[in-house]
């Protein structure tokens, strides 16, 4: 824990009220406004010894205001506005002392000129004495009588000061005023008779209460510093989701304690005990935040965090005095706290006292802040300004905001103007006129006074923004000087120039990813779930756009931790699965769709203000499909998700939830902190619970490659609260026996962790079973063989799941598993949360079937019937029975896919393991692709078979043999055939054989139209015709080569044609006698 005596922090914060914006009050009853006026008019130097010094202070301050309004006083420990009356004793800043000395010398000369005529020494002494008395009274509560006397004394004090300043004053006037002051001093110095021990005790109590509140205030400051450091550390350095969630949860708890602390700090009715108790709670919260930082790897000390926060600021102060001649009408102080490098204001405020002689009903006092921000809730619209007796004398009528370029196009501030689309394209925003201003603008507070204000000589009020909340300046491309000013009624109280640093436009490319962890949370009260948030966050690659048809598929590793479930709908959401759309949003949709980086491809306008991206040009509709309880598919069905986007939506918008299972909150998957058995905080989910992302359909917008991050974080942040009533909640460990293959629970068995808090003979209690404590049943013996419903199960050779860990909140109580009688018999606490220790079993034997489905369909070339069924499908089945393979210990052997290994497979009851032959049924007009489906041999591990028989329309073809004149060759018949459309011709060999036969008979082949490897056509209405043309072979026989009848024409073909008779030599040679007669 940090030191309570951190003097550096205490000194810095001695006058601050962290996040407390209030109207300044003085504790001196109805006269307080005059007392305050006196203090302010005297420049804060109420301890001055004589009137000359008081006058010199006023003159010096006035001169400094008139000639050096831009002077800066950087002494951080000197506040411009004191938070308590008791602190008014602080001396004026050193920067003003030199001025006082100079002015005093000048005024002393003037006084010497009148000293001969009038002696004012006694009057000056009384003025100093009454001033000191006012300081004493300012810290007290006064009776009504003394308040009236205080008012009278203050009036006389102002008269005396005026008299000292008048060169024409007479000695008689001076002496009379001395007497008046002496009388006032005597009246105020008398001890009130009503003061008694009870009153003193009340004052002492009030003093202790004030100290307690100061300590609470310091704790608030320290808590805010630690929270800021923790948030920065978590955002920039912590990578692990669980650690980030733990820090966020601790910071959230601390912020709640800060809110409670501020309520107590601001409440008049709160007690010292309230403040002390809340300070302790706040210190615990600070310690808890720091512990989470340490767990996440932070190596600094909390003292160094606070010291760093304490050395950042630099205070700038300013002052304005409004005078009418010698009469002071208003005194205003202001300050601005700047960060160490003078680039940003981190706090500011003002304090003013105004003479009501300048005010009337309806008068408006204006407080202007430029290049700062608002003053917060303490000076909001309709805030009442009260005199110290509680009378309302005015209120904040309105707060105006403006910039130098005007508040056009709904630019509420330049910061928002540079980001929001406001119905314009990016180029239109870049070129818009007037351009977004390089400033934070001016806030003007209009204070309207009522008729009650004239009842008081002076009125005082002020306000501060101590944390710099609400300061938002635009991002700029070049270093730019900003002038911060605080004005009252147009007069400058403070003016300071700081330089805002320009920055380069840069962003980090992102890949496509998904998360089921971001924005997912569970809240518990007394271990009962009171709230939940199931969300999905999609981030798209900086270079890839996902249009219609693009798919994002998220697959959970299993259903042990969680699973997807379709919602039944509600009054807020459409029933069942539902599209999520930014184009046409449905009832209940809450979709965030924004750029991952506002800095992507940005440009600066003419004022050097970066015009950032804070919107998307396209909308989209996502349609979900629950493929299974562990697989969710999201399809873009309209529009597109732009590149470099973040899409975040509740799963409810899709009609889906993540189911919380019995093991969800167990230590196998979670890291939850318990206190007295109650959930406090933590994170549910780890690497085991991560899902897998697959993406399709994205198109690159610039040719760059798509980058997909497949790991999907999956879990919930946990925040719990509550208070133990009686004994703390407990847990019971129950052995749960599951069928490894089906996941079905087949039995339960209690352990020694029964959820009870047993009482010992000595009266002590055993709190072993309280939630959050550790348990271990990993070494307990379990049965190797169990019989369930007449079937034997064998213990799987796998480690037991969740056999040791932390007793956790689950969905199941012991009374949900056992009857009252069973609980009593087993000695189990029925209200205990059940933590399951899971053991897997498998069946001793397994029957495996191998199937073959035979389909009968029309072939693809059958018009209008292609693929349709000709005959009903037939299913053939063979059955195997195998026995589990055992380890040497008698456990079931499990393969790498977590499935049991069965051996010795045989046909069930001795049946054949071959799928039998099947005769194919015939269809008239069609021909089947096969006549019989063949026998199929199988093994037990075969996948199922499918056999398809296709039917095509019957086609016919004929082949004729003709001579050269087209006449049929005698004795040769035509060849016919038939088959299915586009099936092979079947008579090619027969045609060739016939040709060969005819050749042997003496024919020569002229042509053949029968195709080689031909097929039937698809026209069933027309037969195909093929023609073989041949001619008779002619052999010339000459006389010198006669032939013997009956011998083969072709010696190589003795079975071929034979020479006919008439070709012998005698037939071929004739002797011709010619008789020549001479007459």
TrEMBL record:
Residues 501-520, 1038-1067 are annotated as: Disordered. The keyword Signal applies. Gene3D superfamilies: 2.60.40.4300, 3.10.20.470. Keywords: Coiled coil, Signal. Residues 1-48 form the signal peptide. Residues 955-1031 form the Mucin binding domain. Pfam families: Muc_B2, MucBP_2, YSIRK_signal. Residues 181-292 form a coiled coil. Residues 16-41 form the YSIRK Gram-positive signal peptide domain. This is YSIRK-type signal peptide-containing protein. The lineage of its organism: Bacteria, Bacillati, Bacillota, Bacilli, Bacillales.
């Amino acid at each position: 824990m940090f030191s309570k005596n951190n003097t550096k922090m205490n000194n810095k914060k001695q006058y601050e009220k962290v996040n407390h914006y209030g109207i300044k009050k003085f504790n001196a009853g109805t006269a307080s406004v005059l007392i305050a006026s006196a203090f302010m008019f005297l420049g804060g130097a109420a301890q001055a010894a004589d009137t000359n010094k008081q006058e010199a202070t006023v003159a010096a301050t006035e001169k400094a205001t008139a000639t050096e309004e831009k002077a800066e006083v950087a002494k951080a420990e000197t506040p411009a506005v004191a938070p308590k009356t008791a602190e008014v004793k602080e001396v004026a800043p050193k920067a003003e002392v030199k001025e006082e000395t100079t002015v005093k010398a000048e005024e002393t000369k003037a006084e010497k000129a009148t000293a001969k005529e009038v002696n004012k020494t006694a009057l000056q002494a009384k003025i100093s004495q009454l001033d000191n008395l006012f300081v004493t009274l300012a810290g007290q509560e006064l009776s009504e009588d003394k308040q009236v006397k205080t008012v009278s004394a203050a009036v006389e004090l102002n008269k005396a000061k005026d008299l000292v300043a008048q060169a024409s004053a007479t000695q008689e006037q001076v002496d009379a005023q001395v007497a008046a002051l002496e009388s006032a001093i005597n009246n105020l110095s008398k001890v009130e008779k009503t003061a008694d021990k009870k009153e003193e005790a009340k004052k002492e109590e009030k003093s202790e209460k004030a100290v307690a509140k100061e300590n609470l205030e310091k704790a608030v400051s320290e808590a805010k510093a630690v929270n800021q450091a923790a948030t920065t550390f978590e955002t920039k350095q912590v990578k692990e989701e669980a650690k980030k969630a733990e820090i966020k949860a601790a910071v959230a708890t601390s912020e709640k304690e800060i809110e409670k602390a501020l309520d107590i700090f601001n409440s008049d009715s709160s007690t010292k005990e309230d403040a002390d108790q809340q300070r302790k709670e706040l210190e615990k919260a600070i310690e808890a935040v720091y512990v989470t930082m340490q767990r996440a790897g932070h190596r600094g000390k909390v003292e160094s965090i606070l010291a760093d926060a304490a050395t950042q600021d630099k205070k700038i102060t300013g002052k304005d005095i409004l005078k009418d001649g010698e009469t002071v009408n208003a005194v205003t102080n202001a300050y601005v706290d700047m960060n160490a490098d003078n680039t940003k204001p981190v706090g500011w405020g003002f304090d003013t006292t105004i003479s009501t002689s300048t005010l009337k009903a309806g008068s408006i006092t204006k407080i202007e802040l430029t290049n700062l921000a608002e003053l917060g809730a303490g000076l909001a619209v309709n805030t009442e300004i009260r005199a110290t007796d509680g009378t309302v004398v005015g209120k904040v009528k309105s707060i105006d905001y403006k910039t130098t370029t005007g508040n056009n196009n709904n630019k509420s501030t330049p910061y928002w103007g540079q980001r929001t689309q406001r119905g314009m394209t990016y180029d239109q925003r870049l070129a818009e006129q007037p351009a977004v201003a390089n400033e934070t603008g001016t806030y003007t507070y209009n204070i309207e006074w009522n008729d009650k204000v004239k009842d008081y000589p002076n009125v005082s009020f002020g306000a501060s923004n101590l944390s710099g909340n609400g300061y938002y300046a635009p991002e700029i491309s070049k270093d730019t000087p900003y002038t911060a000013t605080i004005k009252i009624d147009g007069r400058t109280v403070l003016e300071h120039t700081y330089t805002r640093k320009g920055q380069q436009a840069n962003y980090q490319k992102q890949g496509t990813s998904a998360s089921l962890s971001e924005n997912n949370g569970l809240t518990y009260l007394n271990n009962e779930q009171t709230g939940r948030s199931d969300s999905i966050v999609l981030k798209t690659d900086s270079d890839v756009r996902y249009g219609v048809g693009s798919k994002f598929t998220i697959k959970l590793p299993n259903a042990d931790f969680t699973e997807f479930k379709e919602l039944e709908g509600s009054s807020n959401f459409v029933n069942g699965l539902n599209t999520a759309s930014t184009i046409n949003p449905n009832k209940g949709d809450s979709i965030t769709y924004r750029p991952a980086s506002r800095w992507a491809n940005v440009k600066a306008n003419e004022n050097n203000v970066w015009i950032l991206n804070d919107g998307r040009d396209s909308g989209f509709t996502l349609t979900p499909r629950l493929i299974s309880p562990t697989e969710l598919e999201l399809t873009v069905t309209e529009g597109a998700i732009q590149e470099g986007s973040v899409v975040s939506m509740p799963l409810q918008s899709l009609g889906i939830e993540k189911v919380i299972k019995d093991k969800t909150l167990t230590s196998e998957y979670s890291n939850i902190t318990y206190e007295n058995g109650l959930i406090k905080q933590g994170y549910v989910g780890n690497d085991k619970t991560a899902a897998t992302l697959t993406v399709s359909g994205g198109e690159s917008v610039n040719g760059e490659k798509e980058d997909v991050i497949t790991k999907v974080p999956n879990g919930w942040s946990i925040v719990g609260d509550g208070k133990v009533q009686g004994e703390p909640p407990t847990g019971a460990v129950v052995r749960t026996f599951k069928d490894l293959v089906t996941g079905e629970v087949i039995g339960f068995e209690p352990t020694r962790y029964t959820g009870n808090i047993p009482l010992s003979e000595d009266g002590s209690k055993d709190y072993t079973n309280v939630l959050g404590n550790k348990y271990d049943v990993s070494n307990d013996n379990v049965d190797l063989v169990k019989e369930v419903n007449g079937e034997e199960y064998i213990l799987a050779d796998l480690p037991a799941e969740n056999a040791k860990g932390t007793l956790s909140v689950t969905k199941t109580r012991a009374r949900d598993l056992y009857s009252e009688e069973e609980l009593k018999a087993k000695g189990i606490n029925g209200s205990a949360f059940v933590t399951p220790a899971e053991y897997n079993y498998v069946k001793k034997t397994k029957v495996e079937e191998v199937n073959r489905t035979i389909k009968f369909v029309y072939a693809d070339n059958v018009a209008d019937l292609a693929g349709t069924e000709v005959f009903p499908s037939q299913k053939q089945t063979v059955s195997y029975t195998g026995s589990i393979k055992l380890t040497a210990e008698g456990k079931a052997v499990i393969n790498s896919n977590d499935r049991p290994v069965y051996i010795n497979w045989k046909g069930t009851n001795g049946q054949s393991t071959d799928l039998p032959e099947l005769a194919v049924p015939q269809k008239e007009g069609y021909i089947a692709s096969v006549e019989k489906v063949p026998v199929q041999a199988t093994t037990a591990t075969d996948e199922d078979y499918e056999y398809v028989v296709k039917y095509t329309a019957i086609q016919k073809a004929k082949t004729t043999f003709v001579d050269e004149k087209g006449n049929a060759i005698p004795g040769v018949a035509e060849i016919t055939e038939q088959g299915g459309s586009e099936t092979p011709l079947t008579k090619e060999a027969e045609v060739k054989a016939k040709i060969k036969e005819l050749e042997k008979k003496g024919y020569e082949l002229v042509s053949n139209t029968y195709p080689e490897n031909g097929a039937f056509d698809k026209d069933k209405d027309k037969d195909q015709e093929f023609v073989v043309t041949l001619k008779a072979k002619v052999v010339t026989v000459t006389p010198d080569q006669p032939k013997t009848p009956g011998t083969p024409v072709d010696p190589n073909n003795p079975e071929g044609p034979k020479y006919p008779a008439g070709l012998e030599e005698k037939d071929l040679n004739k002797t011709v006698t010619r008789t020549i007669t001479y007459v």
